[in-house]
Amino acid sequence: MPKLAELFLQFKEKDEVFVDGTVGAVLSAYAVPIKLKYDCPPSSKFGKDLPLWKTATSCFLNIVKEIGPQINVLGSSMVYFDDYGCLRLR
């Protein structure tokens, strides 16, 4: 999970990742373990790694924090907030 965030953040300033659905796909990838929370399988059998939902939440928040400024740069020409306050692409 952290590798996905790391890879995405290398391209966070490219407009294409907002237009082609990459942002939505990356954030959706973290939704499953976050939704499962305590029903999520352990991240390792014998280690003391954080639970998957915690790792997914941390990665999700890191990405959201980093793309915020880029959304401001793109402005309303590419993104907008819908009636429910969700970020949408035009």
In summary, what is this structure?
By secondary structure, this protein is mainly alpha-helical. Helix content is 57%, strand content 7%.
Keywords:
2 strands; 90 residues; two-stranded antiparallel sheet; mainly alpha
Structure notes:
It is a single chain. The protein is mainly α and 90 residues long. It has one domain. The chain is 57% helix and 7% strand. Strands 1-2 form a two-stranded antiparallel sheet. A hairpin with a 5-residue loop joins strand 1 (79-81) and strand 2. Helix 1 packs parallel to helix 4. The longest helix has 23 residues, at 52-74. It is elongated and about 50 Å long.
Q: How many domains in all?
A: 1
- Tally of helical runs: 4
Give the terminus-to-terminus CA distance: 28 Å
Quaternary state reads single chain
| Overall pLDDT | 80
Low-confidence stretches: none
Provide the succession of SSEs.
Answer: HHHHEE
In percent terms, what proportion of residues is strand? Answer: 5-15%
Number of separate strands: 2
C-alpha geometry? elongated
Radius of gyration: 15 Å
Q: What is the structural class?
A: mainly alpha
- Please estimate the helix content: 55-70%
Tell me the strand order in the biggest sheet. 1-2
Q: Biggest sheet, in brief?
A: 2 strands, antiparallel
